[in-house]
Design goal:
The longest helix has about 35 residues. By secondary structure, this protein is mainly α. The chain contains 6 helices and no strands. α4 packs across α6 and α5 runs antiparallel to α6.
Length: about 150
Amino acid sequence: MEKYKKTLRIRIALFGSVILLNAVLSICQRIMDDRRKIPADVSSIIDFQSGFLMGLAILSLFMLIKYRKLLRDERSLRESYNRETDERMVLIRSKAGMPALLITSIVMIFAGIFGGYYNIIIFYTLLAAGLCQILLGVCLKFYYMHKL
């Protein structure tokens, strides 16, 4: 159980760093926007980027709060550990390709955001491909949850 507590503390630190990084990027974006350094043709990408990062920060905040509550309550900590190490769910996640699929989808979305500064078609293409991959992973997960 101590190993799981250490894992939760690492996750709390990672989610905290995501929130901190989001705050820094938001401040930098606000400074650039006030100085009129952002071209008008990439403003839609900037709006998507700020919304995406804000959603990521809100999700990170909720997960951070959830993990802190888990560390305080031994019973809920045990239940969470059992849910995470359930053999059936581990098999479902591995068959759906969840860890790799999720990581490549997020990388594609970030690449689309950065590539969108050069060409808007790159932005839309990589964003659509990343979202389709996430949707595919969710569909596979539901399929295997009902099949297994």
